[in-house]
């Protein structure tokens, strides 16, 4: 199998609409290319890594030259055909985002599936800041931002991706006693708190906090 581009920001429902099938390892898709001469198999695993397998239909043998440094007009045509399929999958199934951490991508996918909401990039001067808004009242229930770790009390200027979430005021003090919870960055600190998206807080816990924030924005 050849390594294909990353599909970390692919939306599962879009993959299924495209024709992928859910399998134990992730999502699997098959098609033919080059006038039906080749059978192309694309596997996107649960971490968003893509792999391709190409089989010549007439001989039922795997064709591997497109994965190598082989040159020539025909192998270049095969590479281009495979790349065209992968580019089409990416264009139709992946959400466009400036955020790169695994947790940020997973949360973008989770919010899309749960609420049907996509990030809104509202500030031209701050292209790495975005919000999620409820569709019924347009109120913000979460923000994704980038900030130097030192701004949150860390010991370096490493740029980290963070999420800001709403809290009921009576619950906020208890949340901020938890490890890896911080006062809301650039938000009202009586109603918002911050989590760094570096894996320090489990994904399932953050999803629960998003749901709480979503309800508070009602």
Write the layout of secondary structure elements.
Layout: E1 2-6, H1 12-18, E2 21-23, E3 26-33, E4 38-45, E5 49-56, E6 61-62, H2 73-93, H3 102-115, E7 130-133, E8 140-148, E9 159-166, H4 169-176, E10 181-183, E11 192-196, H5 203-216
Antiparallel strand pairs: 1-5, 2-3, 3-4, 4-5, 5-6, 7-8, 8-9, 9-11, 10-11
Helix pairs in contact: 3-5
Give a written overview of the molecule.
The protein contains five helices and eleven strands. The strands form two sheets. Strands 1, 2, 3, 4, 5 and 6 form a six-stranded antiparallel sheet that branches. Strand 2 and strand 3 form a beta hairpin. The chain is 29% helix and 29% strand. With 218 residues, the protein is α+β, with helices and mostly antiparallel strands. The chain starts with a strand and ends with a helix.
List descriptors.
single chain; 218 residues; alpha+beta; 5-stranded antiparallel β-sheet; 29% helix; 29% strand
Task: Round the Cα radius of gyration to an integer and report it.
Answer: 21 Å
Mean pLDDT: 91
Task: Tally the beta strands.
Answer: 11
Helix content: 25-40%
Shape: elongated
| Number of contiguous helices | 5
Residue fraction in strands:
25-35%
Order of helices and strands: EHEEEEEHHEEEHEEH
In terms of per-residue confidence, which ranges show pLDDT below 50 for 5 or more consecutive residues?
none
Distance between termini?
A: 48 Å
Sketch the major β-sheet: 6 strands, antiparallel
Return the structural class: alpha+beta
């Amino acid at each position: 199998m050849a390594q294909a581009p990353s599909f970390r920001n692919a939306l599962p429902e879009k993959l299924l609409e495209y024709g992928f099938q859910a399998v134990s390892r992730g999502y699997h898709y098959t098609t033919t290319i080059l006038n039906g001469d080749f059978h192309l198999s694309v596997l996107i695993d649960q971490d968003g890594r893509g792999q391709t397998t190409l089989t010549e239909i007439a001989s039922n043998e795997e064709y591997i030259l497109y994965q190598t440094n082989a040159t020539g007009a025909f192998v270049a045509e095969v590479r281009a055909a495979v790349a065209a399929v992968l580019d089409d999958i990416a264009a139709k199934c992946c959400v466009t985002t400036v955020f790169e951490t695994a947790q940020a991508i997973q949360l973008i996918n989770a919010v899309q599936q749960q609420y049907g909401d996509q990030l809104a990039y509202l500030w031209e001067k701050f292209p790495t800041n975005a919000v999620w808004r409820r569709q019924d009242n347009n109120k913000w229930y979460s923000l994704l931002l980038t900030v130097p770790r030192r701004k949150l009390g860390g010991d370096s200027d490493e740029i980290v991706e963070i999420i800001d979430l709403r809290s009921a005021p009576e619950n906020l003090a208890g949340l901020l006693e938890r490890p890896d919870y911080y006062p809301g960055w650039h938000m009202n600190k009586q109603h918002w708190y911050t989590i760094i998206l570096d894996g320090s807080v489990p994904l399932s816990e953050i999803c629960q906090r998003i749901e709480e924030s979503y309800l508070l924005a009602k």
